[in-house]
Amino acid sequence: HQPQARACVARLALADDTVIARLLGQFDWRSRTAGAYLAALTERPAFADQLGGLLLASEVCYAGSAYCLALVAFDTPASRDYLHRYLEHYLRQPQLHFEQAQAMAAILYLDDKNGTAEAARHAPAWADFVASRPGLTLDDACPVFANGMAALRAMVVQR
Prior knowledge:
This protein is an all-alpha fold and 159 residues long.
C-alpha cells in the first residue's frame, strides 16, 4: 500500500499483449512467471490457452504456481479445464513432484469461490500421490495460494 508499490503496479498494468507473450515465450522461469502475473494483473484471459499449455508441459521449474494463479484469476471454463487436465495427468506421476499441490489448491480455491466441488474428482488420485510424499498436505498449499490470490486482487483493485 505504499505509494511506490501503487506506482509500480500502475506501470505494470500498462503491459500489452506483446510484452506478455514475449515473457511467456522465454525458456526461463522468471520471465514466464512475470508473464503469468502480468496476464493475471491486467485481466487478459486470452492468455489462458498459452498458460494452460505451459502448465501442462511443465518445461521449467517454479513457474507453474504463477500459471495456476493466472488461470484461477481468469476463472473461465478453459482455464479451469487446464487445471483439471494438469491434475489428471500429474497426480498419476508420483515420480514427478511439480505443481500438483498448487493445482489442487487452485481447484479448491475455485470451489470455495464458485460454490462447486470439483476437487472431489481428484481426491482419489491426490490420496495416492501424497501417499508417496510424507508431509505433503494441502494445509500448507491452500493458505499460500489464497494469500497469492489476495495479493493479486489487491493489486488489480489499485490499478
